[in-house]
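So, can you check this record?

>
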Amino acid sequence: MATHSTFIPPERTLMGPGPSDVSPRVLNAMARPTLGHLDPLFIQLMDDIKSLLQYAFKTRNSLTMPVSAPGSAGMEACFVNLVEPGDKVIVCINGVFGQRMVENVIRCGGEAIKVEDAWGQQTNLNKVEDALKAHPDARIVAFVHAETSTGVRNDAAALCQLARQYDCLSIVDAVTSLGGIEVDVDGWGIDAVYSGSQKCLSCVPGLSPVSFSPRAVEFIQQRQSPVQSWFLDMNLIVGYWGQGGKRAYHHTAPVNSLYALHESLLMLHEEGLEQAWQRHQQGHVKLRDGLAALGMQFAVDEAYRLPQLNAVCIPQGVDDGAARARLLNDFNLEIGAGLGALAGKVWRIGLMGYACKDRNIDHCIASLGKVVR
């Protein structure tokens, strides 16, 4: 007969591609008494979460809320609401998560027009424009702002401008960018954007902030076919996440996880967006200098390198799996493996949110030094 006991996890330093370290403030918030999801006090908290998310996304979009599931569900929410059967969608691929967008388009019955660039390179704007010219009936341009699989920052402002120029809606993956580098939903004219709670927001995994522009909302309301996902249909969810007043029951919200998200957004607001972006950049420079001293190189050009997700070339002769296992077992430090085309070639070192601090960076450099040597 199997014996069961309470699970007590070790204290790891999480410096992989996510989840990131969670602040004690956020963990404490989760432990507060659970309220009913239609309790007037909880509805007040929902309004505050919406306001703090609008601050984080730099938007006044009324339909701004956290989807009650991880970032992948936020991605799906954007696609199922905006893609109808037969729609042409230009999808920019320069890593794993662009390819996931293609999967979503196909499952919505749409046609994905792929614009592909090498992993570790930026999406080429000329290629995107060529695709828009070749497919004047395209309705949407979709791209990843911060490609977690490669550590590349795509030019979101320019890509959104291209989408507008050719009368397309834009869908943007900001899972790894929100809170770590500039995201300006209104300034860039983003129509649908999704993120995750567990990256630079340093919250527990399991929630996906999303925001839809008035133009996107108008399309969702006038769709010819029903949204293929009941759970993610914004026409239904808006009745629960609408601003103020009476709320219509849609699903049981993850109440305690939303306490955690509120606390993490409050911490971002207290620090200030620009200050948070600056802290991530300073942390990246410190990590870069420390790794250079170990003779390690970055896989991505400095001009479009993400400060919060560092793709580092694995030194010659070092066993990828054995090195990461030793970091985890001997130093309680988690870093990420390469994915897809970069598997076995790079490590992905995250400096996200609460994890982006001097103590963690020093620990990472010292531990890597011992393992690599």
